[in-house]
Amino acid sequence: MMTVEIYTTRTCPFCIRAKQLLDQKGVNYNEIDVGTDPSLRSSMTQRANGKRTVPQIFVGSTHVGGCDDLYAMDRAGKLDPLLKGAA
């Protein structure tokens, strides 16, 4: 079973919006707070092809990207099929 992971910081409004969409869809996700641990941000940056901004969202091995990417994928009808593999 695939997992959903979201790298966040506590005060990031985009992180909150992304989590709201995942919550609305009933998705369980693993939240990784990179705000207090530089090594976690470093591993996120490596995994996200150099992107340092949060959130960075992964569904299984698929890098969805950030909040705007998540909402765009949802509007295009591509998020639900991806999440079905992760549910």
UniProtKB/TrEMBL annotation:
<dbReference type="InterPro" id="IPR002109">
    <property type="entry name" value="Glutaredoxin"/>
</dbReference>
<dbReference type="InterPro" id="IPR011767">
    <property type="entry name" value="GLR_AS"/>
</dbReference>
<keyword id="KW-0676">Redox-active center</keyword>
<dbReference type="Pfam" id="PF00462">
    <property type="entry name" value="Glutaredoxin"/>
</dbReference>
<dbReference type="InterPro" id="IPR011900">
    <property type="entry name" value="GRX_bact"/>
</dbReference>
<comment type="similarity">
    <text>Belongs to the glutaredoxin family.</text>
</comment>
<dbReference type="InterPro" id="IPR014025">
    <property type="entry name" value="Glutaredoxin_subgr"/>
</dbReference>
<keyword id="KW-1015">Disulfide bond</keyword>
<comment type="function">
    <text>Has a glutathione-disulfide oxidoreductase activity in the presence of NADPH and glutathione reductase. Reduces low molecular weight disulfides and proteins.</text>
</comment>
<keyword id="KW-0963">Cytoplasm</keyword>
<keyword id="KW-0813">Transport</keyword>
<feature type="domain" description="Glutaredoxin">
    <location>
        <begin position="4"/>
        <end position="64"/>
    </location>
</feature>
<keyword id="KW-0249">Electron transport</keyword>
<dbReference type="InterPro" id="IPR036249">
    <property type="entry name" value="Thioredoxin-like_sf"/>
</dbReference>
<protein>
    <recommendedName>
        <fullName>Glutaredoxin</fullName>
    </recommendedName>
</protein>
